[in-house]
Amino acid sequence: MISSQFAAANPETQVLDESSVHLWRLVLRDQEPSDVQEVLDPSEWRRLSRFLDPVMRARRLDCRYRLRCLLSHYLGLPPADIRLRTGPHGRPHLQESAHATDLNFNVSHAADLAMIAVARCPLLGVDIERIHAIQRQGLLRRCFSTDERKRLQGRSEADQQRLFFRGWTAKEAVLKAEGTGVFHNAAGIEFSLGDPIRLLRLRGDPVADQHWFFHEFVAAPLVTGMLALAAGPWQVHQFELEPEAALASQSPAPV
Asked: Of 16, 141, 225, 228, which residue has the fewest beta carbons closer than 10 angstroms?
């Protein structure tokens, strides 16, 4: 069942203007597409095929396959012709020398779900996490500021868990937008954790919130998400990418 926040859509019908963000929700398949090797480049295929768990392997291959098919609608190229490179912290991005475009994207996974954010913005990050019981103390000490930890004290276990994952997804979305790893001074990014979440400080900058835009969403029951971009204004459009809509075989006109 499609989450109430997302509407089924065909990428070919969506126009991405300068003030829009397209947030695509994918339910990943447990079987890899039959023509996945024809669409992915050899290095992608080798890297994603290393997963030993067959279900995870199929889901990651399906996600990359459908990412390419989705980007083909924005770039006006066949999926196999899109040139992707992987950054030092594992983030895929368009190869600048092959694509003269301001298009940017980011991907996040959680079990059988994936989110793909697409915008014409130099800073763009998205993260989803499945809310579940974990031992938080080590991560709180390493990735949350003293004031953030104080804001969690005295709350119920359910509230602490919810606010922890709200903060975690917000921090990771910022770090992914910057192209760094999740443990790259995450404690230096401080959020209010309230409703709505607000960036209080970014590595000592008390007015950092003026430079960022955040959008919180629910990807599925017990799966929370956060989108982080350079300051807008932005209009976020949330879509459900159906498997059939991603099977692009021709070169569509760029949008």
From this structure: 141
pLDDT at residue 46 in the model? 93
Q: Do residues 177 and 123 touch, judged by C-beta distance below 8 A? A: yes
pLDDT tens sequence across 84-139: 998 888 889 998 878 889 999 999 999 999 999 999 999 999 999 999 988 899 99
Question: Can you identify the CATH homologous superfamily of domain 7-121?
Answer: 4'-phosphopantetheinyl transferase domain (3.90.470.20)
CATH number for the domain formed by residue range(s) 128-230? 3.90.470.20
3-state secondary structure of 215: strand
Instruction: Decide if 93 contacts 118 (C-beta within 8 A).
Output: no
Q: Is-contact 71 79, C-beta < 8 A?
A: yes
Domain range annotation of the chain: 7-121, 128-230
Is 128-230 the same fold as 7-121? yes
Which two tokens mark 106?
Answer: 């980011």
- Mark residue 222 as left, alpha or beta (left: phi above 0; alpha: psi -120 to 50; beta: remaining): left
Q: What percent of the chain has pLDDT over 70?
A: 93
The two beta strands, 199-202 and 189-191, are: antiparallel
